[in-house]
Every structure is written in C-alpha cells, then in structure tokens.
Amino acid sequence: METLLNAIKNRIDNVLNESNDPNLKKSLYQLARNRIPEGHEDSSSIDPFPVPLLIIGSKYDIFQSEEFEKRKILCKCLRYVAHSKSASLQFVSSKSEAHVIKIRVSISSMVFGTPCSKTAVLDHNKPLYISCGADSFESIGSLTSLNVENKSGPKSLMEVKKIFTSYFPQVEEKNVIPDDPANDPNFREPDIDNMRVQKKKELFEYKKQKMA
C-alpha cells in the first residue's frame, strides 16, 4: 500500500507541476485540507491526500475467518493509515450484495458528490465503514496492546509499518507499478472492477455534458 500511495501521490504532483495554472496545486491541497471536519481533534496531525481517497479492504468474507488478534491489528493499522491521509476506509465482500451497493454509493459520492451514509462502523468484528474525518487517533488507540483502555497510539506511519510487519512479515520483492494500478492482475475483484468501469463511463459522460 505504501508503494502504491506514494506512486499515486507522485503522479498527482507531477501533473500539478506540469500545469499552466500556478494556483492549481495550492487550490487542490486546500480542498484536501477542507475535507477534514472543522474543529477535528487531529486536524494538525493529518496529512491529507491531495485527492479524495477510498481504501477498500476486499474479500471480507475470507478476512473475517482470521484469528481475532490479527484482525484487530490489521484493522487498527488500516484505520491509522486512512485517518492520517484523510481517507475513507471500507471493507467489502463481492459475495455480499449489500457490501457492493454500499461501495457503489461511496464511489459515486466521491466522484459526483452524491449523498452517502455518514454512520461509521468502527467495530473490528464487523466490516469497517469509516468516512473521511469520522475516525480519530484516540479511538484507534494502541496498536501494540489490545486493551481498549490503552489510548497510547503510534506517532508515525513508520511506527505503524513496523508494528504491522511484526504481525505480517513481508516478502521483499521488486515492486513494479503498472501505468494504471487498477489493472494490476494481483488485485482483481470482478464486481468492483466492473463498477469502476461503469463509473468511469459515467464520469466521461458527465464531463462531456459539462463541456457541451
């Protein structure tokens, strides 16, 4: 995820730097900052992603059979990453029609500004559903202790990475980011991929109408 997020952010920054509009980058990052709810307790600690970001945890039907401790650590790590980037986080299973509908609503909301549910699901025993700004570092709590009373959380993404890899050892390999990461065969999810294609077409038609 770290490699992918960095690649996307670098691509966005490159496009912004090539733009003829000198204020575009500043405006985009200001919009990103504005996505953080006013008065949020963590606003000074959040480094918002330059564009709306939705982190999807797919194959929830398989994930829920993992042992409790690993599930909770993974959920907390993803919550920390999402919250620190002012991203939304959603778990989904393509085998659940309700999940697929919910993810469609979320994507539509990000692309077209349509309404979506603001009710957060933070229970690690359920599929997480957390909109941008609906979480907090205090709520996430400690990643090294499963004691809910321990509110001492990690201080950086690097610390989160160390904790994550201690539970889920990573195999070092050369990562090759394709021109379009969405086409990476390692992350195929038919329902979500088909929905992405559909939303891409809708966005194209929307832009076409705007320009008419």
Polypeptide structure, described:
- Belongs to the dynein light intermediate chain family.
- It is found in: Cell projection, Cilium; Cytoplasm, Cytoskeleton.
- Its main location: other.
- The structure is a single chain.
- The protein has 212 residues and is mainly alpha-helical.
- The protein folds into 2 domains: 1-167, no CATH class; 181-211.
- The protein is 48% helix and 5% strand.
- A 3-stranded mixed beta sheet has the order 1-2-3, with helices on both faces.
- Helix 5 (97-112) packs parallel to helix 8.
- The longest helix has 22 residues, at 190-211.
- The model is unreliable at 146-150 (pLDDT under 50).
Order of helices and strands: HHEHHEHEHHH
- Principal-axis shape equals globular
What is the distance, rounded to the nearest whole angstrom, between the alpha carbons of the first and last residues?
38 Å
Tell me the number of strands: 3
Q: Over the alpha carbons, how many angstroms does the gyration radius reach? A: 18 Å
Give the strand line-up of the largest sheet.
Answer: 1-2-3
Low-confidence stretches: 146-150
User: Kindly state the mean pLDDT as a whole number?
Assistant: 84
Number of helices: 8
Count of the separate structural domains: 2
Helix content: 40-55%
**Percent of residues in beta strands:** under 5%
What structural category characterises the helix and strand content? mainly alpha
Major sheet, described briefly?
Answer: 3 strands, mixed
Keywords: Cell projection, Cilium, Cilium biogenesis/degradation, Cytoplasm, Cytoskeleton, Developmental protein, Dynein, Microtubule, Motor protein
Family: Belongs to the dynein light intermediate chain family.
Protein name: Cytoplasmic dynein 2 light intermediate chain 1
Organism: Stegodyphus mimosarum
